[in-house]
Amino acid sequence: MLRALLLAPPGAGKGTQGELLAKERGVPHLATGDMLRRHVAEGTDIGKQAQAYMEKGELVPDEVVNQLVGQAVAGDTPLDGFVLDGFPRTLEQAQLAYDWGQANNRTFNAVVSLVVPEDELVRRMLARGEQHGRADDTEETVHRRQLVYEESTKPLLEFYRQRGILTEVDGVGTVDEVAARIRAAIDALSAD
Ligand code: AMP
């Protein structure tokens, strides 16, 4: 059963590819950004705590995010398989996810890093902001989010490389091309 994490900078196509991969493998797609945006739209307590951070392009505090993911991944009936998109995003979250996985015998078996040059990321995010009106796809926030990724999330690549489950995939191309590369990379990991 696939337990995968998509680890990539904002704008790399995690959401699109995560959804496709999850559908193909018959596992749920858990995207913390989508979950948080739903909470903000519905005005829940979690949404109220998260909104200001999201608008500025900062990370939402771990306690808030852990609550969202914890129940699904490590609650009373932990999921056998999943595609996580957007969590973990800090080393603290990664350690927690690992502890959950160990406790339930369900650690990740694939971490897919989508590699896209920064100028392409910025171009995609600004286009997405214009098309879909995402509140955090603005000129100021886009750069901040790239920096937050570099500082807080990129170190996770090394964490997973050391565990032997990291695979790096070229994220430039059509949706189908990238999806095919991800599929091949995951198959190669499981064949090792
Ligand atoms: P995304 O849709 O994955 O780009 O996430 C949008 C925003 O949600 C991020 O810029 C953060 O503010 C927040 N967010 C999503 N996932 C996390 C996470 N694991 N930890 C902290 N903040 C998160």
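^ adenosine monophosphate complex. The beta strands are 3-7, 29-31, 82-85, 110-115, 166-170. The first strand starts at residue 3 and ends at 7.
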